[in-house]
Write a structure and sequence with these properties.
The chain is an alpha+beta fold. Helix content is 34%, strand content 26%.
């Protein structure tokens, strides 16, 4: 079962079928997807959307839909991504158009960190960030993560960061 997490302004919850149209718009936007694998067709977006539920079944964790408490629609995602090619889960996030600049990514990531540490007993998490992704680098900075040696992901360069355990 996918838990529901709350922070001051956000609800992190399971995805719902009615969240898919906003997710598909996000996946079709070249600006929003340039650091996460590129544009997807509606069918590819659906496969990715549905695969998220599989990650919960296989790993016991995955991505949450991020919903502002004062709204009913998903504003983006935050959670843990852990394909078998990675040695450990990545703390990841993304926001849909119109929800940036409100601190939602940082707030959601902090809530996931707390859950991962307290409920899953995971050590401090790591995140990948494309060197050109200045918005995610700003979130990383606000989260207080430390740089690790750079690496590659999906054939592209990535900065890597280690987060601190939340208190």
């Amino acid at each position: 079962m996918i838990p529901v997490l709350e922070s001051e302004r956000l609800i992190l919850r399971a995805w719902r079928r009615e969240d898919f149209p906003a997710y598909a718009v996000f996946c079709a936007d070249p600006e929003r997807t340039r650091y996460s694998g590129g544009v997807k067709t509606d069918f590819q977006a659906w496969t990715s959307f549905a695969a998220g539920f599989g990650e919960w079944a296989l790993n016991g964790y995955g991505m949450f839909a991020v919903q502002p408490k004062d709204g009913s629609e998903a504003a983006g995602y935050a959670g843990l991504w852990h394909p078998p090619m990675l040695d450990e889960p990545e703390l990841a996030w993304g926001l849909f158009e119109g929800f940036e600049g409100r601190g939602y990514a940082t707030e959601a990531a902090r809530r996931v960190q707390l859950w991962a540490a307290r409920e899953l007993n995971l050590p401090p998490l790591m995140s990948f960030v494309h060197p050109d992704n200045l918005l995610s680098q700003a979130v990383i900075k606000r989260l207080g993560a430390s740089p690790l040696p750079p690496t590659e992901l999906r054939g592209e360069p990535r900065l890597r960061f280690r987060h601190v355990l939340p208190v």
